[in-house]
Design goal:
mainly alpha, 4% strand, 743 residues, 3-stranded antiparallel β-sheet, 30 helices
Length: 743
Amino acid sequence: MDEEALLKQFAAQFAHGPDDADDTDAAAAAQGADSTANQVADDADQSPATFDTQQFLNGLDAIFDRHTAATEAGPYLEQAMVDAENAGDEAGLLTVLNETMGFYRSQGRHKENQWIVQRALELAARMGLTTGTSEAWATTLINCATSMRAAKQYDQAEDLYHQAQSVCRHSLAPTDRRLAALHNNLSMLYSETNRPDKAELELREALRIIEASSVNPDADIDVSSSHTNLALTLLTEHKLEDAHWHAAKALEIYRTGHLEHSAHYASALAGFAQVCFAERRYADAVTGYRHALAVIEECYGKDTDYWRITADNLRQAEEAAAQAGVTVDNAGVAGDAGALPQSGSRLPNSPAQGKTGANAASSPSTVSVSTGSAGAAEAVSACPVSGLKLARAFWTQMGKPMIAAKYPQYAGRIAAGLVGHGSECYGFDDAYSQDHDFGPRFCLWLTDEDYAAIGEQLEVDYEALPRKFSVDAQGRVTFEAHARSDASGAFPSAGAGSPVTPRAQGANRRDGVFRIGDFFESITGYRTAPAQTAPHEWLMLQESTLAAATNGEVFADPTGLFSKTRQGFKNMPDDVRLALISKRLGMIAQAGQYNLPRSLKRGDGAAAWLSIHEFVQATASLVFLVNVPMVVGYMPYYKWQFAALRKLSGSMFALLPNVGEQLETVMRLSSAACYGGAGFGEGGKGAAPAIEKINDIVEQIAVDIVKELKREHLTTSGETFLEWQRPYVEDHIASDDPVLKSL
């Protein structure tokens, strides 16, 4: 069994976080829960005058209490969406969408969940929540992020979690359980993206919050869930004894509180079983998995990811027990093992303790990389990890300890990360990107006051950090705290990497110490994002500029100020987004549907070529705008435009997912269409086949765009000449500012 891979899969699909933000409090909602799924209006066409949110929640709880969610919850939620929308109750609809995200996620219905996530974010924006710090917005962000994480869309999930953190700092009390849910869910993302150390820290914070908020931590399901999740993360770090203690503690809490019939009991059972498997206690692992499977089947049914994954884990545990000669009776209880151990039980002392997997004792091979020496460009070009991963390791191993040692009073005020210009900030760098402006680097962002106090000296200390590192076979980066001489006796330069181009030096430097306002001003011309009420300023900012200001990763931001400023640039006003969609529709129609075929008929290849360029640019931009930049980011500059478009199109939640591939086909055929001539190509058919194919693709893209506009209720027209769709889209612009409307 590949334990690490299995753990990641298990954590993604099964582990339950403390009071997940999309799970209602069943105890509170059960009061007056006489409303059930049977009380939903028989006729779906009947529009209720009002939507009773509490009645909806009570009915949903009743379904789960009866253990009929597998068959009843889906139709109930779908009807509730219709009822809330017909009643014009946006707040009620947002509640339903949040509940639906949680249910769809539990059922593994990730493809369907894409519409729910998109709809929730769009509704929140329409309600004006995205500019504030309301609890509703925080809850929605957490639920959307968790749904994206469950669908393995990790970049988008992490960004949404960080947005949620920024909101929660202002909207929730320090002991609010939703904060624990956020830490728990973020830890699962870190676990699934091979950052167990960060996952452990998030889980310990979640456990601290949930215990502090609990009336009785020894009988609290959410405390138990935190212990289970922490046990699974400790297991990936090979901390078996700690993992065992936390997994057993989770089971003890269920027994103390007599909570064994809770659906989430399966999580604790399966978590303990996984720890037992790692300890090679296969009989106990089989027992735990069998018990977990029975609970899952009772509460969720067999047609779920929960059941399938746990059944597969049980099968592997049974096979391992058989190979080890361990007998487990039909009831699932080991011969003399008795009940599952309590939290105080100790692990057996064995040579295998602390090691899992066949190759646990082997030493990983490493690739040494030294920057700044005579062969710097060649050495760095062989670096096997991405710039962002290198930057994070450089910060964690070199930068963070330096700040803690030399600037302890500022450690809680300095933000760090890698954002801005450079291929690695977009995550698209490769070996070809490493011949210039590449190497260990990160940014440190300070307030104006802190920069005045320590900025210059901090820059000196940053430049002095050793940059020699090695990368092992698993891609782990290790920096050397003290530079050692290489074979030639030369020491690597403290601040050099691959050759630095003029565009990355001086005022244009891409790493080091910055005032927060200066950093964003150097990219956008603005120290903070334009006001939501200043659409003319937003319209002057190119999407590629906004992409550079909002890409990359933030490794640390104790005060949240940098993230808040960065988030301001991501939060494009919806009126501006709609105005840009209208402009793109106009250019698609003008360049692709009108001027392109006319230019080809005239035989003006140059005009046709430029028409294709304008059509492709406008269409690609529209895809990002339709998918909402707040969720998927902005379209980057031309070099990485299609890399980003392919990544977006490959997302399970992508809208207009086929357009990117269609655009690439248009470009591939453009040479033949524009310059092929009458006798071009095999058989003398000339440019005609390529022209016909391009025109067909352009019209198909227009059809797909209209379908999407209809789905988003931005139009009621089926007209596929996209110029005529612009008035319908602009009718949804709330502002009267003429800059937002077409002439």
